[in-house]
Amino acid sequence: MSQGITPRADDYSQWYLDVIAAADLIDSSPVRGCMVIKPHGYAVWEAIRDDLDRRFKETGHVNAYFPLFIPQSFLSKEAEHVEGFAKECAVVTHHRLRAAEGGGVEPDPTAKLEEPLIVRPTSETIIWHMYGRWIRSYRDLPLLINQWANVVRWEMRTRPFLRTAEFLWQEGHTAHATRDEAVAEAERMLDVYADFARETLAIPVVKGVKSAAERFAGADETYTIEAMMQNGWALQAGTSHFLGQNFAKAFDVTFQNAEGNDELVWATSWGVSTRLVGAAIMTHSDDTGLVLPPKVAPIQVVLTPIWRKDEEKAEVLAFCRGVEAMLKPGVRVHVDDRDSVKPGAKYFEWERKGVPLRMEVGPRDVAKASVFCARRTGGKKYPLEVGDDGAAFRARVVEELDAIQAELLAAAADKLRTRSFPIDSYDALKAQLASEPGFFEVAWCDDADNEAAIKTDCKATIRCYPLGRQQEAAGRSCFYSGRPATHLAIFARAY
Amino acid sequence: MSQGITPRADDYSQWYLDVIAAADLIDSSPVRGCMVIKPHGYAVWEAIRDDLDRRFKETGHVNAYFPLFIPQSFLSKEAEHVEGFAKECAVVTHHRLRAAEGGGVEPDPTAKLEEPLIVRPTSETIIWHMYGRWIRSYRDLPLLINQWANVVRWEMRTRPFLRTAEFLWQEGHTAHATRDEAVAEAERMLDVYADFARETLAIPVVKGVKSAAERFAGADETYTIEAMMQNGWALQAGTSHFLGQNFAKAFDVTFQNAEGNDELVWATSWGVSTRLVGAAIMTHSDDTGLVLPPKVAPIQVVLTPIWRKDEEKAEVLAFCRGVEAMLKPGVRVHVDDRDSVKPGAKYFEWERKGVPLRMEVGPRDVAKASVFCARRTGGKKYPLEVGDDGAAFRARVVEELDAIQAELLAAAADKLRTRSFPIDSYDALKAQLASEPGFFEVAWCDDADNEAAIKTDCKATIRCYPLGRQQEAAGRSCFYSGRPATHLAIFARAY
Fold it and tell me: Which of A34, A95, A145 has its CB closest to that of B90?
């Protein structure tokens, strides 16, 4: 509990790990690359999930659940898809253990599966197999299904929340009668993600399209939201794919149109994961520890009662319970009534756990029917009158929380703005990347070889071709090759 | 959509499958023993999950997430546990696929895991490994953690919802300083399950303790709630285990007590699964199809607009939308505005999908500002005035739904009462079991051999020793052996 937090300026990667440890969000596990999400970390994910789930349902989607396992042969049906995922799959080969000589257990050779099963790295293949059964006519379309699930990708280098072998996510899989409708769906869900990131996580993002090299394996087009971390690196925070008819072809999914003719179905898929927890941590936290946007903070307000004499304790605690009752259930509030921990240690703990608003309550506060507020960020401290009107007090506290949320967004937006650099030459990009990384906006002539060469040389990659800004490249020359530009591209170092 | 439903009296098992198919709750999958939970079925599980999650949080529990995979060696650490689960485990042996000769892919022999991983059949072992890191002192206790997750048990004979290779569930895992506290927790969670079953699923249950033969592998005591299906068979609907210090011993988990001495930690675990969806289906449905308790029905009220002339359509639909707006968000309401489906076909569809309350709205209803209600069960049909007061109308509809919920519970409780048979001899049990199965309440002398013999002979098993009724066995002789009774036992055929 008393370990220090490395300052961001000294070692940004270590700072991230320290913040997570000090906030008690996760623990490493005995299973390679898999983390345990501890209660405080999981509660952040629950808040993210509930908010997104509401947005999905408001846009007409329903949830379902498909098997964890995918028959090995399914993965090969879409050529690019298997190429993208075969190298990082957990493969189930046996369905029974037996006692081993010398103790312990081992896979029972008599229980070997005829066909190995893959633990899903993503579910396009099994879902499109099922869609092949469910879709007959244009009346069955669109099919707008989402799944909340765990997936496994055998990553060699992992980082808490950002890259783990198993992670939690949602994957939307939709089927449409026309190309236009599928493209519109992929773009709509990108907007849902961008709105969610901004409104709920207080993370401003750049919406764009991926280059061919960065596309999802099996997609015709991948849309992305890219967030900027405090070190200027990019984090891909969510993707939405227009899959064309690739999976419909692979799994032979056709529908009869209104004229009675068979057509291949059009598809999208889109997902965000526990990576978003990492994005929120990296965007808002500081050298003191975790900072969480109030909308996803498991505890939004912590009340710390302070007393010296025993006769004060009952009075102060009773007042705190009264305040708690006023704030519930609209505000997630916690009264830290531990006897064994001193107030200073409590402040320290809740600060590191990212609680947005702390209220100190001593005998003098009780006498004045007020609480003494301290915001997690900004250092503002001020008394707040409680009064008799619970609803009015709650509204006042909600205002405070909204203000904190707005401040976090403003700070992150400011960062994104000041660290977005229009760059005209590759040398300038490399120099800026070495001194103060950020998003580099360049005129670019699409070329996979040049893209790979830049990645090898300075590790910068095309994060996206930002939506709505492509006209800015018109008439310009590529910052790298000098050839006529085809895109406005954003390059950055990325997680 | 038009397949018939086998009557319960003809073939109860087929009736169950037909009800599920007609309600579009699941589909079979290409993966052995795994089902796809379709949107209408998944929404029932969501309602169950949300209700239970609230109850868990109200009783002081928090959610967390532990890895899907368990190192093979962990499973062997608790002797009875491995005995119970080794025979039905999915085993991951490779972490990569490679291109196979002749096309397709195969496990890459160069990517064989040093130690195989087990897909969790339950998480005691990995969780107690982590608890060993987290628990140091009595101040760290109790630890009250729940996990919502998928688990895999390689079942040879599967049945939708009731027994599948992969299923969704929650598993609570708690750690305590004393035996008494752990026993109290196991009993408290049994009460939570029983209250939930009664209040939310409208399923009355018998609470009891399992015999040694039916205990969870690794538990000192297993508590159970047993529900009676319409054919008189029992369904184990949830279990709560007092694990003693078995897992603390296996994973060496001790705590320092207030006096500074090390003690082994006491444990419980408890779980319910998607099996509960099957329990609800089997308890309430009829020969027409699915019946769902309003509290878990994805759609509680369906509005079916009726019009003959085009000029009526707009007026009727507008009225329906108004009613919908009045009922939302307190009531889950759906307006079936499909042009392509006739009203009669709509009634048929929603009946089979188990919607508790149907409201028909024609031009004459609009003129009277009322709707014509038909309950899914009971055949009651009656007009209901809508009026101008949305809140009042909503309250009236909620009353209707509560009445339906209460009727379902009353019918199920009546069934449980009339089909619970006090039986004095084994011959009487077998005769009754052959004619009209139910719960057989018998004086019983605990004996594992006799228990096994009865199971072999007539497939009846001890469902539980019911709580609070054990004194009824005092002074009586065992219905089977004639020896002095040790327990009051409930025998039944079970799923």
Answer: A95
Planar angle of CA B204, B205, B207, nearest 5 degrees: 145
Q: Is the ipTM of this complex over 0.95?
A: yes
Chain A residue numbers touching B42 (CB-CB < 8 A)? 62-65
Pair A77, A129 in one domain: yes
The residue to which tokens 């939405």 are assigned: A240
Task: Give the nearest chain A residue to B78 (CA atoms).
Answer: A104
In tens digits, chain B (495 residues) has pLDDT values of: 446 899 999 999 999 999 999 999 999 999 999 999 999 999 999 999 999 999 999 999 999 999 999 999 999 898 888 889 999 999 999 999 999 998 899 999 999 999 999 999 999 999 999 999 999 999 999 999 999 999 999 988 899 999 999 999 999 999 999 999 999 999 999 999 999 999 999 999 999 999 999 999 999 999 999 999 999 999 999 999 999 999 999 999 999 999 999 999 999 999 999 999 999 999 999 999 999 999 999 999 999 999 988 889 999 999 999 999 999 999 999 999 998 899 999 999 999 999 999 999 999 999 999 999 999 997 779 999 999 999 999 999 999 999 999 999 999 999 999 999 999 999 999 999 999 999 999 999 999 999 999 999 999 999 999 999 999 999 999 999 999 999 999 999 999
| Domain shared by B392 and B443, yes or no | no
Instruction: Give the integer Cα–Cα distance in Å for A274 and A44.
Output: 9
With an 8 Å Cβ cutoff, are A30 and B71 in contact? yes
Q: Are residues B339 and B395 in the same domain?
A: yes
Q: Which of B256, B284, B312 is the last residue of a domain?
A: B284
Strand-strand pairing, A420-422 and B420-422? unpaired
Domain count, chain A: 3
Does the distance separating the beta carbons of A29 and B66 come in below 8 Å? yes
Residue B121, preceding peptide bond in cis (omega within 30° of 0): no
Cα–Cα distance list, A304 to A339, A343, B92, B330 (Å): 11, 7, 48, 36
Euclidean distance between CA atoms A374 and A235, whole angstroms = 31
Count of C-beta atoms within a 10 Å radius of residue B344? 9
Contact B291, B285 (CB under 8 A): yes
The backbone torsions φ and ψ at residue A174, rounded to the nearest 5 degrees and listed phi first, read -120, 150
Number of H helices, E strands in chain A: 14, 25
DSSP state of A314: H
Measured CA to CA in angstroms, residue B112 lies from A2, B116, B320 at distances of 40, 8, 61
Q: Is A266 found in the same domain as A384?
A: no
Domain encompassing residue B24: 12-89+123-284
Q: B252, B284, B316: which is the final residue of a domain?
A: B284
Q: With beta carbons under 8 A apart, name residues in chain B contacting A114.
A: none
pTM above 0.90, yes or no: yes
CATH number at residue A69: 3.30.930.10
Instruction: Determine, for residues B340 and A139 on separate chains, whether the beta-carbon distance falls below 8 Å.
Output: yes
Q: Is residue B83 located within the same domain as residue B137?
A: yes
Mutate to test the interface with A, among B48, B61, B91 (most CBs of A within 10 A): B91
Residue B7 lies in a domain: no
Confirm whether A415 is domain-assigned: no
Taking the CA of residue A97 and the nearest CA in chain B, the distance in Å comes to: 5
If asked whether residues B54 and B157 sit together in one domain, one would say yes
Instruction: Please report whether residue A292 resides in a domain.
Output: no
Domain assignment of residue B444, yes or no: yes
User: Judging by DSSP bridges, how do beta strands A97-99 and A62-63 pair with one another?
Assistant: unpaired
Q: Token match 């399950």: residue?
A: B193
CATH code, domain carrying B375: 3.40.50.800
Q: Do B473 and B395 belong together in one domain?
A: no
Bridge partners of A149? Answer: A169
Collapse the DSSP code of B457 into the 3-class scheme (helix H, G, I; strand E, B; otherwise coil) and give the result.
Answer: helix
B56, B191: one domain: yes
Task: Point out the residue among B92, B133, B340 whose CB comes nearest to the CB of A119.
Answer: B92
